[in-house]
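Service request form, structural biology core

Requester: graduate student, group of Dr. S.
Request type: structure prediction, single chain
Budget code: on file
Notes: please return the result as structure tokens.

Sequence provided:
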Amino acid sequence: MRIAIVGATGLVGTEILNVLSEFKIEFEDLYLVASERSVGKSMNYQNKEYTIKSLQDAVELKPDIAIFSAGGGTSLEWAPRFAEVGTTVIDNSSAWRMSPDHKLIVPEINADQLTDNDKIIANPNCSTIQMVLALAPLHKKYTIKRVVVSTYQSISGTGVKAIQQLENEKSGTEGEMAYPYPINENCLPHCDVFEENGYTKEEMKLTNETKKILDDRINVTATAVRVPVSGGHSESVNIEFENDFDLTQVRALLNNTEGITLKDNPDTNTYPMPLYAKGKNDVFVGRIRRDESQANTLNMWIVADNLRKGAATNAIQIAKYVIEQKLVKA
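Core staff response, request fulfilled:
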């Protein structure tokens, strides 16, 4: 097994390497790939030194799997080149997510859709992954009609520049701005760029990707907010079902869903928080309660480490699945 990590020096790339080690995925060769300014530099991984390779060098080495976390432009240009030499690409950008010819995968939900013909597999958006993982068992049981979601998203979703901005603001240091306004002691109702309909791209990802992964009939409306938290996305989710539900059964369904940890006991102040989700692979669900303003409607609070399940862990789980199912042949 030969594995390439494209964007290995970035926030998500570093986390992919951490999760790769934790999942104990065996490989004969590992190719760490980054931008031209990093090519030729050395990077330590599991007490071994690796020389950073260029994209062209990596293509010529014909890895069995390439996990991309290097932006949409890079993925659009280079993922097909890897696929042409037989590599299975797992892409963490938005480049292929809504393509009708490429599958959008959360392994616990729809990995069984994959075949050995899928050479470019899309990893969903971080905020989508954690939400649909909690929605999937409930949709199967009660049929979801509509979802209203408000997100509270970590600055790590923007990248290193945003983390530096927050640190600078906390210390009173002048520096480059990732956002149009200060983020320290502030909330920005502005994740990604605004589209013509007044929603941001991040908000429309929640709408469109949920439909593609779960069911095109589910209506989703979203407000995505950036908050001064360094790691972990939180979501307030209001779900209207076609059928009524039992709260005890809802909790049981979520508790028995792979990849979900239930933290839901108001008596002991037990509920999900990004502080405790950080560094963990599960999605945490709590504050489960009936919406008393309308029938067949549920409120939940969903939290996950956006660099883990929202990106790196999901990608490694896809890699693990295609290896175990022999959809990629080393």
